[in-house]
Predict the structure.
Amino acid sequence: MSQLSPRAAQILAALVAEYIDTGEPVGSARLMHVAGLGVSSATIRNTLAELEDLGYLQQPHTSAGRIPTDRGYRFYVDQLLAAPRSVRNGAAAEAQLRRDAGSPALAEDVLAAVSQVLSRASRLVAFALPMTSDGILKEIEFVPLSSTKVLVVVVTDGGQVSRKAVDVGEDIDPQDLRQASNYLNTEFAGMPLEHIRLAVLERLRHERTLCDALRARALKLAQTGLQELPKKSRLFVDGASSLLDEASEDSGITIGTLSALLRMVEEKERLVKLLNEYMDGPGLTIVIGQEHRTPDLRAFSIIASTYADGTRRGTVGVIGPMRMHYSRTIAVVDGVALAVSRVLRDSM
């Protein structure tokens, strides 16, 4: 990215802020009032022309003012992130989450509530997503169905219960099953299911060194029971209808692009995959326009932040038009992420 002079940076930031507020192309005369530079309209016009040549601005009509490109929005957002910014403490969101999720608060109830709370606060499409797609193990139990058949019961953090019948092909003592489940719960309770699958496979690779037959049997039962559990992407989304008012040629959100987003929301799997790819670490992530990896989202921006309670972690965020109030929305998303962390931590 080209290094802008302080004057050009201030003019660009003022133009983006003004366009976000008004939705109208911004001309040099207007910028004279809002930028506070004390320079002539001609100087501002020359700077705008340079910023357009550099790809930060575009002019929708010859006689109109200018609007930011994706690159202009990115510059503006990076300036916001570089400066000290306020983060809402999320107290109001936290109180609402506790009311909506109930007590004791299950993780799934909290995430279902947070997408609603965040959508109302931002007036955008809001989502909540665990980074572990198929849950944290709370408990695993082996229930004898017959002399050779065992029911593998898996309970996850969201209160989900999965059951699978397994024929072990030999007589098995109920006492051995209790000891096997105790062993697995001691080793793996509190871990994501996908991590447990990998750990079980790794231990089974070294089965020859397992002198304890009970432990080997427990691992094999766990492998069979966990391997075929459906991997559900628990994405919670609210507020999709809020973008209907934004659909226009000027906003870049057409009925076609809006329909593509709504299909992604309905399908969920594609959207989950993209969100997990974007969130490569803790903290705030912002993806704007052409930065998206799929054309279906290039009319939109995503603002997301991670939450964590020491064991569980995930993402909350919003999807909206590129012409959104970034400063306010960043503060709302960060505040809600903090609120989710506190509610989940207290529910442990």
The radius of gyration is 26 Å. The domain at 91-133+233-347 is CATH 3.30.450.40 (Beta-Lactamase). The beta strands are 57-58, 67-68, 125-130, 137-144, 149-156, 161-167, 236-238, 284-288, 300-308, 313-321. The mean pLDDT is 83.
